[in-house]
Amino acid sequence: xxxxxxxxxxxxxxxxxxxxxxxxxxxxxxxxxxxxxxxxxxxxxxxxxxxxxxxxxxxxxxxxxxxxxxxxxxxxxxxxxxxxxxxxxxxxxxxxxxxxxxxxxxxxxxxxxxxxxxxxxxxxxxxxxxxxxxxxxxxxxxxxxxxxxxxxxxxxxxxxxxxxxxxxxxxxxxxxxxxxxxxxxxxxxxxxxxxxxxxxxxxxxxxxxxxxxxxxxxxxxxxxxxxxxxxxxxxxxxxxxxxxxxxxxxxxxxxxxxxxxxxxxxxx
Length: 268
Description:
- The chain is built from 9 helices and 2 strands, in the order H-H-H-H-H-H-E-E-H-H-H.
- It is mainly alpha-helical.
- The chain folds into 2 domains: 3-106, Orthogonal Bundle (Helix Hairpins), CATH 1.10.287.110; 115-267, no CATH class.
- The longest helix has 53 residues, at 87-139.
- It is elongated.
């Protein structure tokens, strides 16, 4: 079965194009919209099978390799207009095969890289938020209190920028990776295209809140036993936690993300 023909897309279609084609055909062929027609039920099963393969980068790459190998063998066995046993024809077939095989691998790597980068955009801020909360609770910095007016202005500005950045990252992560339990009634027949997402918003929100609280508690416990910072550098670190502690985690996350973004640009 040619899964690309089943979904009516090009073999070079992007993941979003394949997904959109599947949703469009599924709404059209769903048995609930066709009075349980056996013919449309079979067609619906066919597009579901095609999407099960083409919708996953690794599965799609394996499928494309099998199709390519079959086409190559067919050409070599005389089933193609270009079939020939002379050296130039064999070399031409090999070049075409290698080129298309490399395209498949490059596309799979690009898909995985995009997914990895999207995941890193939430992992790095989340880990940075947990770590910075723990460190702040442990050492209890008082940079804001001891700063001149210009220093206070800079810290407040960085705090505002950090909060905006952090909220944006969390919002994007929730939209991409979480679903709302109230929306589970949405079906394939809906005009809006609900994505398949791995986590509920409640679970993700609970994880975030519990992670922050746990980091804070652990930091306070450790800080109560280790007070060398407030003793060694009392003008920078306090023995007791002050309200200004809320400034530092968003600022830390902002800088961590900036460094990470810069590293990705250099790597790219």
